[in-house]
Amino acid sequence: MADTFSNVSAEKQALIAHFNSAAADRRRWRDKASFFHKEDERYLRFLIPEGSSVLEIGCGNGDTLAALNPGCGVGIDMSPGMVAQARALHPAFAFHVGDAENVADLGTIDRKFDFILIVDTLGYANDCQKLLENLHRFCRPDTRVVLVYD
């Protein structure tokens, strides 16, 4: 999976540009809202046991995925800037640039997961149904999808 991709709508290009520009300040903003993020992460750790395999859709800089201490952690995000930051901050996990609504962008992730995590990302999807359908390839019968949307 390349770190750039084509064939995205003008709306998604604008989102990518926004999140790329926000990537440099992401850690600072997370620190300012640390109580909120720590509470979110505490609850997610209640739902997702340590050591689980986790795929995070819209992983941003990877902090939430890393906070779960997964045995296998994989993240995907449309922003190359966020993914570059995630790779630098959390090298133990795999991070990919891509759009979860585009099945081709998911092509190199070749495994099933215990949990699929979608935090504050569903609202950016043009087609929620398509996004969720694309995730079937990563599911076993016991896989849980955890959606967080504030």
List keywords for this structure.
alpha/beta, Rossmann fold, five-stranded parallel β-sheet, 38% helix, 21% strand
Could you explain the architecture of this structure?
- The chain has helices spanning 10-23, 26-32, 34-47, 63-67, 80-89, 128-134, and strands at 53-57, 72-77, 94-97, 113-119, 139-148.
- With 150 residues, the chain is α/β, with parallel strands linked by helices.
- It has one domain (10-148): Vaccinia Virus protein VP39 (Rossmann fold), CATH 3.40.50.
- It is globular and about 40 Å long.
- Helix 1 (10-23) packs parallel to helix 5 (80-89).
- The chain has a five-stranded parallel β-sheet with strand order 3-2-1-4-5, with helices on one face.
- 31% of the residues are buried.
- The protein has six helices and five strands.
- The protein is 38% helix and 21% strand.
In percent, how helical is the residue content? 25-40%
Question: Helix and strand succession?
Answer: HHHEHEHEEHE
Coarse structural class: alpha/beta
Strand order of the largest sheet: 3-2-1-4-5
CATH class membership:
Alpha Beta
CATH H-level superfamily title: Vaccinia Virus protein VP39
The low-confidence runs, each spanning 5 or more residues with pLDDT under 50, are none
Distance between the termini: 30 Å
The tally of domains stands at 1
Mean pLDDT: 88
Radius of gyration: 14 Å
Sheet with the most strands, sense and barrel status: 5 strands, parallel
Total DSSP helices: 6
Residue fraction in strands: 15-25%
CATH architectural designation? 3-Layer(aba) Sandwich
**What's the number of extended β-strand segments?**
5
Which topology does CATH recognise? Rossmann fold
